[in-house]
């Protein structure tokens, strides 16, 4: 089930990434690269940091085909996607929790400390979006007021806590997905935001 949700998530992430590339007038190659970076970048950054190989897209090259095809499709149906913005926000929330749980599982497999397992989940869930925004010359979504990284942290914390005390990976996965998804969707529905730090004084 987690693998199926992962495929859905990378497809949705690739499609929304294509729109970001389109707003920067990128060509077809650029669209595909932004899609790959967004959908698969979080796991890639995590694996590079922890020396965990092979990369998921090297082991499963079909992920590259799926995300590229999704991105090109999005370019053709961009006007329709605009009308489905809320649906893709929900799919993005799903992707966040799925990527976070997978990131936690990978870190556990290589026996990293709990704090690093939590960090691994957050990186996997959020790094792809940061890379997309940087390449598209935008302030990363993660660094704005949205409850996004914090939702990943909560998801990871629930996964680690349930898995540690109950010993059931399935229960931990379901619990973390439910809590993380609920938090992210509620933050969208009620426009919950993180406090912002605003500083305007010049130092020179």
UniProtKB/TrEMBL annotation:
Residues 4-77, 90-162 form the Glycine transporter domain. It comes from the Bacteria. It is a multi-pass membrane protein. The chain crosses the membrane at residues 28-51, 63-80, 87-108, 114-135, 147-165, 171-190. Pfam families: Gly_transporter (PF03458). It is found in: Cell membrane. Keywords: Cell membrane, Membrane, Transmembrane, Transmembrane helix. The keyword Membrane applies. This is Trimeric intracellular cation channel family protein. It comes from Pedobacter vanadiisoli. The lineage of its organism: Bacteria, Pseudomonadati, Bacteroidota, Sphingobacteriia, Sphingobacteriales.
């Amino acid at each position: 089930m987690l693998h199926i949700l992962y495929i859905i998530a990378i497809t949705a992430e690739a499609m929304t990434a294509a729109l970001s590339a389109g707003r920067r007038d990128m060509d077809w190659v650029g669209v595909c690269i932004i899609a790959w970076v967004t959908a698969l970048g979080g796991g890639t950054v995590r694996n590079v940091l922890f020396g965990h190989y092979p990369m998921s897209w090297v082991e499963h090259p079909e992920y590259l085909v799926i995300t590229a095809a999704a991105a090109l499709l999005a370019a053709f149906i961009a006007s329709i996607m605009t009308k489905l913005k809320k649906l893709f926000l929900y799919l993005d929330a799903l992707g966040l929790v799925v990527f976070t749980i997978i990131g936690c599982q990978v870190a556990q497999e290589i026996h990293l400390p709990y704090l690093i397992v939590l960090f691994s989940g957050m990186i996997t869930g959020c790094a792809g979006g940061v890379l997309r925004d940087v390449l598209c010359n935008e302030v990363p979504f993660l660094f704005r007021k949205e409850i996004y990284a914090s939702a990943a942290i909560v998801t990871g914390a629930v996964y680690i806590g349930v898995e540690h005390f109950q010993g059931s990976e399935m229960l931990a996965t379901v619990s973390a997905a439910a809590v993380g998804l609920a938090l992210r969707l509620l933050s969208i529905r009620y426009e919950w935001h993180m406090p912002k730090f605003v500083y305007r004084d010049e130092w020179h």
